[in-house]
Fold this sequence. Notes:
Layout: H1 2-22, H2 31-53, H3 58-61, H4 66-90, H5 110-131, H6 140-165, H7 172-199, E1 202-212, E2 215-222, E3 235-240, E4 249-253, E5 264-269, H8 273-276, E6 286-293, E7 306-311, H9 315-327, E8 334-340, H10 349-357, E9 362-368, H11 374-380, E10 390-394, H12 397-409, E11 417-420, H13 431-456
Parallel strand pairs: 7-8, 7-10, 8-9, 10-11
Antiparallel strand pairs: 1-2, 1-6, 2-5, 3-4, 3-6
Bound molecules: flavin-adenine dinucleotide.
Amino acid sequence: xxxxxxxxxxxxxxxxxxxxxxxxxxxxxxxxxxxxxxxxxxxxxxxxxxxxxxxxxxxxxxxxxxxxxxxxxxxxxxxxxxxxxxxxxxxxxxxxxxxxxxxxxxxxxxxxxxxxxxxxxxxxxxxxxxxxxxxxxxxxxxxxxxxxxxxxxxxxxxxxxxxxxxxxxxxxxxxxxxxxxxxxxxxxxxxxxxxxxxxxxxxxxxxxxxxxxxxxxxxxxxxxxxxxxxxxxxxxxxxxxxxxxxxxxxxxxxxxxxxxxxxxxxxxxxxxxxxxxxxxxxxxxxxxxxxxxxxxxxxxxxxxxxxxxxxxxxxxxxxxxxxxxxxxxxxxxxxxxxxxxxxxxxxxxxxxxxxxxxxxxxxxxxxxxxxxxxxxxxxxxxxxxxxxxxxxxxxxxxxxxxxxxxxxxxxxxxxxxxxxxxxxxxxxxxxxxxxxxxxxxxxxxxxxxxxxxxxxx
Length: 457
Ligand SMILES: Cc1cc2nc3c(=O)[nH]c(=O)nc-3n(C[C@H](O)[C@H](O)[C@H](O)COP(=O)(O)OP(=O)(O)OC[C@H]3O[C@@H](n4cnc5c(N)ncnc54)[C@H](O)[C@@H]3O)c2cc1C
């Protein structure tokens, strides 16, 4: 219900400019000109909403998960690109002249031409660089900075273009909408990069110890941070040394249980420049936490038993859940399945074994150097009521895809499977992926139909 409501609000907001334009008594133009305007208004509204989607608003990602929210952000960027790429091409006439458009064509002003063309080119580059990010010779941080600043520039140039030359955007309500939406987009960035860092409490690195091959256990204690709470399975953005002026913050699942507060523990695997240097972070270093985020939790979910399925460093949030279930003496049966390449890679093995021994009905299954394929999973599933258990899955994207697909084929309904992706890329067509694509397809179709209705009105 919540997701349906959020989607309705999203559709209403991204289509509001088209509705405001349709309500105007403006002179009608050739249908291609009307289509061009409709696509521009829908595309630009989608683009401005992208800031909110990537802006760490808990109200948006709650019940959905940050990974799916970001997937929505990625697909909607493509939709915005599609609408906006077509916009300048469709016009029947560009009739350059001072002032906004009259009865036909675009009627561009010199300034509006420049801002429109720049916004258009920059948007194409922005989406292309996001799509080809891994192939670029840039660090993730450099890409992220360029993406944020580039998006802001596109929004500012686009807003100027709409207000300066928009055929329908001269109406006060529509002008107010563009100004408010652009201001909100800017505020979202200011909130994430300025306000949040300023308000963050300080933490201190209490210990960094080697946990397993290329994996580190990092423990934080509050310096002046107060009142931090989280649900087992959530994650936080971790920043070291400086709160402001440092863009190197990285998301990590909290591996400790809420009951272990005020200490926070992370399991971090070496993957690049930041994580590769984590083992050398001195004890006593300053740290900053933005969080908690994420929906990989037991909150609001019911199951007769709980199965935690981890691949590699995906054990981090599952360790938090296992610790929490153990600490709260949850009476439900618990199965922990932990797959990795070799014994040397296993983290927290002793603790997982002791959790499994701690109560009847708890089991730990280690899967070493083998795939967690459907046959193996089938043997691990509970013999009865498997479709009423909860399954938490975290690990490499291909492993999550395979496990989700296997569980679905073994009769587990989608709502009983919760997964957390450390990488937001599109996976294979698992039932969740198919549902995600169907929902996104329906949203884009509704937007396209609204534009067509605007042209035909
Ligand atoms: C919700 C979530 C929870 C995670 N939990 C853990 C965990 O508990 N333990 C663990 O070892 N890893 C975890 N990760 C992965 C971890 O964030 C990356 O491995 C880390 O950021 C890599 O940084 P780097 O500079 O070492 O490597 P880089 O080479 O800079 O990055 C490698 C890849 O990591 C991703 N990445 C890097 N920086 C960021 C960022 N700021 N925001 C989002 N993605 C980024 C990108 O896909 C990038 O291509 C999690 C990721 C997410 C999204």
